[in-house]
Amino acid sequence: MRETLADWRPAIDEAIADLVPREIDAAYLESFFGVPTYEYDPVGLQRALSTPLWELLDRGGKRWRAVLFLVFVEEFGADPAEYLPYACIPEILHNGTIIVDDVEDEATIRRGEPALHRIYGRDVALNVGNAMYFLPLKIIAQDPADLPADRRLAAYEMLMHELNRTHLGQGMDIAWHNEREVRVGIEEYLEMCACKTGCLGRIVARLAAIVTDQPPSVEDAVAKYAELTAVAFQIGDDILDVEHSLGRAGEFGKAFGNDIREGKKTLMVIHAIRESERERARRLQNILEKDENTDDEVLEAFSILEDAGSIEYARERALELAAQARAAIDGLDFDAETTRKLNEFTEFVIERDE
Amino acid sequence: MRETLADWRPAIDEAIADLVPREIDAAYLESFFGVPTYEYDPVGLQRALSTPLWELLDRGGKRWRAVLFLVFVEEFGADPAEYLPYACIPEILHNGTIIVDDVEDEATIRRGEPALHRIYGRDVALNVGNAMYFLPLKIIAQDPADLPADRRLAAYEMLMHELNRTHLGQGMDIAWHNEREVRVGIEEYLEMCACKTGCLGRIVARLAAIVTDQPPSVEDAVAKYAELTAVAFQIGDDILDVEHSLGRAGEFGKAFGNDIREGKKTLMVIHAIRESERERARRLQNILEKDENTDDEVLEAFSILEDAGSIEYARERALELAAQARAAIDGLDFDAETTRKLNEFTEFVIERDE
């Protein structure tokens, strides 16, 4: 998978630059957005749109959503190069959500540098993030692969379905963040992940199936694979926060246990609250509720998670989801090499160490 | 027009409540967003979605986008009651942009009460605002009027075109706000209005034409009407800020001259900078650049605008745009009563006093 990533990345970035050039001018604006009634201001739009967008993209990101799309397209018998513009759709959507999430979470750092709103202001960041929700959706209408009308309509209906669920997932996550008590259970947590992270994965898979005209059973199977892998990824992310923290607790005074400090209701926390004896569950709840935590409190929270077997439980659930993801595409009769890549990817999302 | 507004409003609000009920439960979530993979959290989504959405809608707003849509639909020979769900599309989009704009502008007040993000937090406000960009777009796929596939696709392509331009307009406005100097000219100002405010108007008109299957010439004509009226409205809005301020300057210590204090590059300001002699233009620029203004400075800015004839100029441009809007639908052979209503509306947007 990693070789493929490296191979495709320049082509993907080129396709994104076709959509939003690094240097924009009136000719680009006219060709992409239509003839103006009066006159566009390319100078202002360079500052408000292109510069912040490329600032984020140039910081990295693995473009794995675009690559996964291309892997599916190739497996479905089409030429990935021909579908590069479509590969940008989930990639730009994803980066747009990152910008908006960072404003919502009041994040300070993104990919090792200041979050976009800290550089350009909240207004520019939000507008570019929101613009990135709609820019890629225009690709379907531009129709670079000359798709029949029913495929274009199917793509729009799918995108509207999944993007609605994305906001549902984010809504649940935010609601829980603003509550003090740990109110929800494991099923709600998994649903939040399935909506918030899973739907972008589903867009990757379903779009590949739609543009290459696969039957519904195939579209459903790859969507399931992508959703399950995304949920496993999200749980892997939560585990990583604890493990990284345990590895470097106190080291150089670095921040650790960010999720605990933020009072995040992770799968581990939800599990520990249910499985611990009353006093320890109450103590964990109490540490999560505090606005500020000492290092000792964070370590105490970790030990409650460990004693309840919650880290192990989360890892097992993630592995189980990854296995379900592999099973979802098992009947698809994919090429052995593709299957190997896709299976490897379900392991990578849990076992990665960054 | 105002009678129609009052008549339709309860039905419009009912249609919106069909889309996002005031009280949401698992059954609604399942029917609108699809069967969950795991389990939704209606309690959290009530707090993060339905409550803030209705908080804003219940504060008022004239729903004129929905009403204008219904006026067009009726004129196009269809039963407005049948198209009520579609009337919600521009209305919910508009209210979503209001929530997001208020976060971007760090607004404190909306419709006489605290801006949503001041009550629910920036995270909830932004997510509900963004959710309102996608919730209404699902109506096309739900297809309550049983439209043929080509009409649904045309609706999506139109919406993606206009929503992209909306973000372009907002991007220009934000870029200028963040610049100190008044760099742009009148044509760019009008384009910003055409994109930012005009595109939502165009959605109203084009959607009505698309769902009732009008020829392109009719769709273009009503789109032009709506865009021109919206630009006139925007200029009217800027004039209103000055006139209100002149009327109550100093009264009870109330804030006045908000646009000047915010350094907003209105049509009047752009005109005055170009038409005033060098020294006065520089002084106006200087007042706009300041982070804080005294009341005397605001009054001085007003007198520069007045001396340059900029308030009169703006009113004339608005009247001219309104006349162009009326001319745009002149050849359409609309019913005399509809034409009267639509013409009256172009005057109302400039002459209104609130």
TrEMBL record, chains A, B:
Assigned keywords, A-Z: Magnesium, Metal-binding, Transferase
Keyword hit for tRNA processing: no
Molecular function in Gene Ontology: metal ion binding; prenyltransferase activity
Domain of life: Archaea
Cross-referenced Gene3D superfamilies: Farnesyl Diphosphate Synthase
Pfam family, one: polyprenyl_synt
GO biological process: isoprenoid biosynthetic process
InterPro entries attached to this UniProt entry: Isoprenoid_synthase_dom_sf, Polyprenyl_synt, Polyprenyl_synt_CS
Family (UniProt): Belongs to the FPP/GGPP synthase family.
Name recorded for this polypeptide: Polyprenyl synthetase family protein
